[in-house]
Fold each of these.
Amino acid sequence: MMTLFGIFTVTLFGLLVAFALPKFLLQRAIARPFPAHFSKILRKNIPVYSRMPTDLQLQLKRLIKQFLYEKKFLGCDGFEITDEVRLTIAGKASMLLLNRSTRVYPDLKMILVYPSAFIAPRIETGVGGIVTHGNQTLSGESWSDGRVILAWDHVQKNNGNLPDGHDVVLHEFAHQLDSESGRTNGAPLLNNKARYRSWSETMSREFAMLQHSAETQTESVLDYYGATNPAEFFAVATETFFEKTTQLARYHPHLFDQLRAYYQVDPRDWN
Ligand SMILES: [Zn+2]
C-alpha cells in the first residue's frame, strides 16, 4: 500500500511532467542558436527579413524556432520536406505574430505540403437543398481542426519576387488567426469591445466597397477574391497589408489603420 508521502511524491512528479517539462523543452529549443543556413534561406525567400530592424529579426527567429519545435510538417504526393520548405513557411507565418503578445498558433498542429496545386473534395448545397459533390483545385487551405495545407509551387511563386499583393502563406495563416476566436468570420481575437466595434464598422464598410468594385470591375488594391465573404476579406486584406502596404495606406487608410493596430507593425518600414 502506498504511503501518503508516496502519493504526494507521485502526484508532484506527475504535475512536473505535465506542466514543467513541456515548458522546459520549449525554452531549450528556443535557446538553441539559429543555424547560419536558416538565416540564408530567410534572406533568399523572405527578402524583407534583411531589411527589418534587428529587434524584429531577433523576434522572428525566436518565433520560427518555436514554430518549428511545435508544428509538424508532412509532405504529400511524394513531396520532400526540406529546411527550405520549413523555414519559408514558418518565417512567413511568424511575420503575422511580430510585436504581439500572442501564442504561436496554439490550435495548429500540422502543415501539409503538396508539390503543386491539390484537388480537394467539395460539397455544395444549392437551390432547393440539392447537394452536389465536386472537386476544387487549391493552392492553400486552412482548417480550424489544426491543419494548414499548402502547394509549394504557389508558396515559391511569392519568394523573392516583387510584392504583387498575393502570398498564399500569409493568406492561410490569417485564416488560422481568424479561427482562434472560435469562428472563422473575419474578426480575429481583439482586446476589447471597443476594438471589435471599430473593427466591425471599418471591415463591413471596406468589404461592401470591395464587393461593389468586383461587381463593377473597378480597379482595386485588394484582390476581388476578398469580396467572397468576410473571412476571405480579412485574409486578402492581410496579404495586401504586407505586400502592397503603401498602396493600401494611401487608398484604404481606415482599413490600413485597423490592420496596423492588429498586426503591431508597419511594413512600410521595411518595404
Ligand atoms: Zn482563403
Amino acid sequence: MRLDNRETIGFDALIIATGVAPRRLPDSDLAGVHVLRTLDDALHLRAALPTGPRVVVVGAGLLGTEVAAATRTMNLKVTVVEPEPVPVRRPFGDRIGALVGELHRDHGTRLRCGIPVRRLRGAAGRVTGADLGDGTTLPADVVVLALGSAPATRWLTGSGLRLGDGVECDALCQAAPGIYAAGDIASWHNQRFCTRMRLEHRMNATEQAMAAAGNLLGDAEPFAPVPYFWTDQYDTRIQAYGIFPPDADVRIVHGDPVDGYFAAAYGHHGRVVGVLGWNTPRRVRTSRRLVAERASWTALTDTPALRSATVN
Ligand SMILES: Cc1cc2nc3c(=O)[nH]c(=O)nc-3n(C[C@H](O)[C@H](O)[C@H](O)COP(=O)(O)OP(=O)(O)OC[C@H]3O[C@@H](n4cnc5c(N)ncnc54)[C@H](O)[C@@H]3O)c2cc1C
C-alpha cells in the first residue's frame, strides 16, 4: 500500500475503514455553504449561524433534519429542501416521514418537499440563495448541504477489490483473502436479513470493526447484527432497530402518534424486520427481540396500521 508521500507499507492483513465523504453541489465553494462531517465542519457552522438569519438546509435525511431542528432552536429562519415527498423517507418510509414533517412544521421549520435544489446562487463569492426545481429562488445567508455521502473508495480504484456501493464484502466482512472492511465504507451480506447492506451508524462501525478484526484473526463468525440507530429532533427521540423497507407493513404496537409517543413494528415477507420507538426508549428496547428472532408478522396483523391519514 502506497501513501501520498510515496512511502510504501506492506501488510499481512488489512482492514479498510476510510468511511464516507459528504456529497456536494456545484458552487459549494461559495462562502456561507457548509457540509457537516468533521469537528472542524461543526465549529465552522456554529460560528457562521449567527451571521445570518436565513438558513437553507439541502436534504431532509437524518442529518438535514437534525441540523434543521438544532438551527431552529437557535431561533433562525430555517427552510429544508428535499426532492422526496416527505423527510427521512429513505431510513423510515412515508408514514414516519410524514410524522417527522409534521414535527418540523409544528416547530416553525419550513419544509419544501418534492422539489430538488438545482443550483446555488452567489454574489461576490458569497452564497445568496438556492434555485429550486420549481423555478423559485430561496434567499439564504447560510446553506447547509446534507445530501448524503459517498463511500471513500477512490484510493482503491485499480486495487482489484469489488467496489459497488462501498467495498463489497462477504458475510465475514472479508473483501478478498486477508482484506476486510468495516464501518460506513463496508457493504456486506447480513445473513440475519438475507440481504446486502451498508450502514452509516456509529454503533455499527464499532461492532463491525470488532467483528472484522476477529475474523481476520480466525473467528470465521458471520457479522449479522440487528442494526440500531437513533435521531434526536427537538424534544423527540426516535430509536430504530432493524431494517425499514419502503414497502413494509407498519403497525402501532404501543401508544399512539397523537399522544406524542408510540412504538411501531415493520413487517416484511411475513417477518418482523424493524421496530421504531417515538419517545418510547424502554418499549422499543424490549421490542428489539422481535427483530432479532425474526418473529412471525402474523401475530401483529391485528394491531392498528400506522395509516397515512393518521399522520397527514
Ligand atoms: C454530523 C454527523 C452526525 C452523526 N450522527 C450520528 C448519530 O447520531 N448516530 C449514529 O449512529 N451515527 C451518526 N453519524 C454517523 C457516524 O459518525 C459514522 O457512522 C461513523 O463515524 C463511521 O465510522 P467509520 O470509522 O466507518 O468512518 P469515519 O468516522 O468517517 O472515519 C473514516 C476515517 O478515514 C479517513 N480516511 C478517508 N480516506 C482516507 C485515505 N485515503 N487514507 C487514510 N485515511 C482516510 C477519514 O479522514 C476518517 O478519519 C453521524 C455522522 C455525522 C457526519
